[in-house]
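User: what does the whole thing look like in 3D?
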Amino acid sequence: MPGSAREAAGLPEPCTPHHVVQHGGPENPSVAALRDRFPEAIVRSHVMWGETTVFVAAARVHEIIRFLRDDTAHAYNYLVDITAVEYRDADQPMEVVWHLRSLPWQRFLRIKVELPTGAPLEIPSVTDLYAAADWIERECYDMFGIAFNGHPDLRRILMWDTYREGHPLRKDFPLRGRFSRAEQLSQALKIDTSGGYSTTELSVADAFNDLPEDMKQRLRDKRTAAGLATPASDEDAR
Amino acid sequence: MSKRTIEMAVGTAGLDAYGQPIRAPLTVREQGALAVDAPWEPELESEHMLINIGPQHPATHGVLRLVLELDGETVVRCVPHIGYLHCGFEKIGEYRQYNQIIPWTDREDYLNSLGNNVAFVLGCERLFGIEITPRCTVLRVIAMELSRLMSHLVWMGTTCIDIGAFTPFLWLYQERENLYNLLEGWVGARLTTSATRVGGMAAEVPDGWMDGLNAFIRNFPKTLNESDKMLSKNGIWMGRTVGIGALTAEEAINCGMSGAMLRASGVAYDVRKDFPYLDYETYDFDVAVGTSGDVYDRYLVRVEEMRQSIRILEQAVQRLPDGPLNVDDPRVILPPKTKATSQMESMIHHFKLVMEGPRPPIGEVYVPVESPKGEKGYYLVSDGTSKPVRWRIRPPAFVNLSAIPRMVEGHLLSDVIAINASIDIVMGEIDR
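Assistant: Here's the predicted 3D structure for the full assembly of 670 residues, as structure tokens:
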């Protein structure tokens, strides 16, 4: 439980930050451990307004987050947020930001990856580490067009599936949208309202085989617990 | 061998060519065993039904659409669809000065508008490097706890309706009305308050306002206890909530749950305790923690949170110091109107603040607060201009809702309504 680990380690109780300096201050101890463990993957780190930011190499970010989550000395078991930042200055690289929190150690760490201008917007997904990443990564993909490799279901979440104007939070996206009002209206009128269901939703007869593997396993476990026969697939069930 | 006829209407497979249920003869064999002499076998295993709830449905608390795949009455799969209320708040924020964003924070989680106002300016003040005054700190604590009460009252009232109890809804909404009257006296608005400014508040509390707040603090526990008495040991209420939609502590942490959703699963994580802001560590209050993580525990946790909010309010009213409300910093706070029209320097400050807006240094902050829905965070990135490069809302209800397929799977269709109500969603915040 939070608190007890902190007490055992003899750490002081946290309190509302007063007079936090803009730059400098005590660094999150996890950064030193990361430097020891992944010396070549840590680009730089800084402390700003009391929060530690680590810039890491894109190729190793999944490994680093897995280490931070699984190592009991850090135990960043809570994914707060994933988002991206694109600066107004086009020369500045786009950043993907992970906000991680360690509930046992009451620590907060910001991990950043810089995506160089012109390079494909791709980054490994952490959905296998945190279930919370599912929708958050989908939103980031929807708004910025960043592909999270390994995400099981990477599609738009806030905008609709057939939205063709691009990714709204990119700096080159105009505030009023890319299409003219007339074009937006004509597209809205052309929408087939009966197409509200996706094809996967409509193929319910073959649903079991389409389910993700973990959901299948959970359903099987529930059936086993209820003393029912376990269908290996839909065909067996029939 | 006797024969009798029963109706076997199983999905559409049980209908004949005229749309009537097929009547299958039921025969009684030796030892009284029943058997169906049917020309067809009902395919119970593969007969799934698709149900669409929402987006316009009173029990989805906004424009949430759930597509459910049912096996009989049991949910096999749930696909949520969101985005019907997407307004691009984060995009608009990049085109607004910091004080101009405050009205947008009213409109995302509109049941907690005061709390959002406070949370947003807390982030701005960290970014600007401003220390607020002691009076402002206590008034903001009062604002946050009032909005927690308002949000929980709406949650409890609407959940009562969803589960089938109407009376507590009326009692609780009456109390919410009293709160909104208080708010109206303070900031002039009821729902969209815009009560804060970077470096202070929009308005000082009027004379006699504290008496109204004290009367509320005195009277509200009676209503809460009555509703508690009506529901907590009510057989119907418990039958609909106990053991429904349970999440274990590990699951809840891994799914990023926060607020009552996390604490009901037994994780004592409260931003007010773990990462305190506004001097919350100096207030004496307890964090309500559940054990089983089901709908009933979430209800108990929220009821207890309301009691703790009253405790915090009592302490805040007692310690409210006199003194200035806003920081004495002409870079962020507008000068008084009399000075702005009589002194050259104040007039320049006034002009620059209104036309250009305050400018923070280059930097970024993530400031989390404990909103009624869970951990709400504002992530602000500044490039030194008067408008943020990025204004990111960490929406607690968005992350909480993302676990709904995991929670409803294997439960009955009617339980989906109870589980959805227990998440306490506000679509304005989810879609933003």
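In plain terms: DSSP finds 17 helices and eleven strands in chain B. The first helix of chain B runs from residue 89 to 93.
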